[in-house]
Amino acid sequence: MPKFLRVGVHQSNVSGYTSKAWCIRRVGSAVFLKWGAVEVHGAGAARKVYWTLPPRDKTIRCGTVQRASDYAKAAIARRRNHRYELLTGSIATRRRTADRGAEFEQALATILFVDIVGSTEKAARLGDARWTQVMGHYYAAVRKELKTLRGKEVVTTGDGLLATFKAPAAGVRCAAAIREAVRTLGLEIRVGLHAGEYTVSGGEVVGLAFHIGARVAAKARAGEVLVSSAVRDLMSQSGIQFRDRGLHQLKGVPARWRLYRVEH
Question: Is 204's pLDDT higher than 80?
Fold first, then answer.
């Protein structure tokens, strides 16, 4: 079963990040897909890849062997064209101790998701060497603003980053500061913020709130900071101005959400 790991050029020799993996296998006229979030530790030959949560799976019934073969080839080609590398080793499942459930805790925070607009086109135009330098400066700028406003980095996802804040105002101010800082690198970002609960278990964090934050960011235009109604309601006395961007269906998230643009 061919396995693919999504790796940004800046992550090739980095340990301790999370990403996404795909497994593709054809058996006769059926194609079996398995995918999900993974955690990568080590680099080079010593690298270990673990599923962070049980992976999702899907079976495609193609009817004929030829159609299944064509489907599998196209699926593999898509992964290779979207910054996935072929994995030679296995993807392991972390063993859980019997009392692991006792470690679960609920936390409430403002969640920030930042993403570079048009990163694929910029990387192609600049080339790998220059893009690696730009990404290094990008993450340095983002982390500097996170430190200033006491944000906590959770995970990087390709050219995106997810962080949490105890106060929504700090998250909004950090988003604006990051936007201005990375413009000096010739980059435009989109940012989404949402406030909600998530679950902490050991070093892992999970919860629908993270997905909502990412979906809010996906609705933002270049240079725009969008917040969910949950964030806006918490900041009614902050003095920060918001403009209503209407109701939106967030992919994979129940119901429609009213979003607001941060005005400065």
Answer: no
